[in-house]
Design brief:
With 90 residues, the protein is an alpha+beta fold. The protein has 2 helices and 6 strands; from the N terminus they run E-H-E-E-H-E-E-E.
Length: 90
């Protein structure tokens, strides 16, 4: 599964934690605040989202693009400390 992550982290301490988590889970930094992985499993992705959720606050934003996932593209985003998801059928 291909996963791209875009981060807009307000606090530098939180940003360092999130970037560290992304690199530990095998993501590569491809552009400023944009990371990609082609080898992360669904289970590892769920753990990563939990780790990021615990390391951010109300002002931080993170967006995940997952493709393909059961014949769809899934966009998950953390905004104002709440996870939301959009599913696009392909």
């Amino acid at each position: 599964m291909f996963v791209s992550v875009i981060c807009d982290i307000a606090d530098m301490g939180h940003k360092d934690l999130v970037v560290d988590f992304l690199k530990r889970y095998g993501f590569k930094d491809v552009m400023g605040n944009t990371f990609e992985s082609t080898s992360i499993s669904e289970k590892a992705l769920m753990r990563l989202k939990r780790d990021i959720d615990q390391s951010t606050d109300f002002y931080d934003k993170v967006r995940f693009y997952q493709y393909p996932f059961e014949g769809t593209m899934v966009i998950s985003f953390l905004i104002e400390k709440k996870w939301k998801k959009s599913v696009i059928r392909i």
